[in-house]
Design a protein that fits this description.
Helix content is about 30%, strand content about 25%. It has three helices and five strands; from the N terminus they run βββαββαα.
Length: about 130
């Protein structure tokens, strides 16, 4: 992955042929032209859980229309950092009851969540090119 600085507060990640732009909100000096990096991070949690739920349903030929994951974040008032991330998988009334607990279990398999839980070490260096 390569990160580039693209003017203003726009920072772009380039990976696997994709460009993922981020920006800051106007009150943070940006133009709000893209999600902030932190919002993108939070979105990766919900969308990761979503792909596991989608795959589970697809494998069982369960329609996913009407399934919504609502993500809420509780932040520490002093640091502003999340202390709790809640995912509510809202299922339609006709969702098979026998699979409700399984949907929670597959959402727990989310690789983003697992990565946060193991608290990987970060190493930041510089180099002159």
């Amino acid at each position: 992955m390569e990160i580039t600085f693209d003017g203003g507060k726009v920072i772009t990640a380039h990976l696997h042929g994709h460009s993922i732009k981020t920006d800051q909100p106007v009150n943070g000096g940006g133009e709000n032209s893209a999600p902030s990096p932190f919002d993108l991070f939070l979105a990766s949690i919900g969308t990761c859980a979503g792909i596991y739920v989608k795959s589970f349903c697809d494998n069982r030929k369960i329609p996913t229309e009407g399934i919504i994951i609502v993500q809420n974040v509780v932040n520490d008032p002093e640091s502003g950092l999340p202390t709790e991330i809640n995912l509510d998988i809202q299922l339609p009334v006709d969702f098979p009851e026998k699979y409700i607990a399984s949907v929670i279990n597959v959402a727990e398999l989310c690789k983003v969540k697992k990565t946060i839980m193991i608290q990987p070490k970060f190493q930041i260096t510089t180099s002159i090119k």
